[in-house]
Design a protein that fits this description.
CF(1), ATPase_OSCP/d_CS, cell membrane, ATP_synth_OSCP/delta_N_sf, 8 helices, Peroxidase, domain 1, alpha+beta
């Protein structure tokens, strides 16, 4: 359900930005507001408190954001509060940012490797990822997972490329267990 809410509202905000030709400006504002909300735990507690009315929450939005961000984004925040979706605001904004990245033709890859990759390896990996994807630019988030033993796992969206030794050993083990020795 949460993903559907993020998609629905994120798509609406993205379509508004495209229609008004403010995609880049709105992306910048959304990133700023998202950062502010992530850093301000007290504001989130206040905005999610059940005893504070929607009207009071909308007044808080006005006080904090009016004149500092675009009227479109302020209005969007009011809609989120009015529809009782404030608890999903981070997911909505993250989904919106993902849509803008796609619009800009920028990919995001998550790479887990057994050891830290050298700069040359990272550059070669990015070059290959650009060749096999439709992206003009790709940002990579690297993590080290020693349980992989060797190789790496690459995740781009819902696509996964798993060349880890751990997975290969697991597959070999499954295949060997299927064999019957007479």
């Amino acid at each position: 359900m949460a993903k559907l809410v993020a998609k629905t509202y994120g798509d609406a905000l993205f379509e508004l930005a495209v229609e008004q030709q403010t995609v880049y400006a709105l992306e910048e504002e959304v990133q700023g507001v998202l950062l502010l909300l992530q850093e301000n735990v007290e504001l989130n507690k206040l905005m999610n408190h059940p005893k504070i009315t929607k009207e009071e929450k909308n007044e808080i939005i006005e006080e904090i954001f009016k004149g500092r961000i675009s009227d479109e984004l302020t209005g969007f925040l009011h809609i989120i509060v009015t529809k009782d979706r404030y608890n999903e605001i981070a997911n909505i904004f993250e989904y919106f940012i993902q849509r803008v990245r796609e619009f800009k033709n920028i990919g995001l890859a998550y790479v887990s490797s057994a050891v830290e990759l050298k700069e040359e390896q990272k550059a070669e990996l990015i070059r290959k990822l650009l060749q096999i994807t439709k992206f003009e630019q790709i940002d990579v988030i690297y993590t080290v997972d020693q349980t992989l033993i060797g190789g790496m796992i690459i995740r781009i969206g819902d696509r996964v490329i798993d060349s880890s030794i751990k997975t290969k050993l697991h597959e070999m083990s499954k295949n060997l267990s299927k064999l019957q020795i007479n």
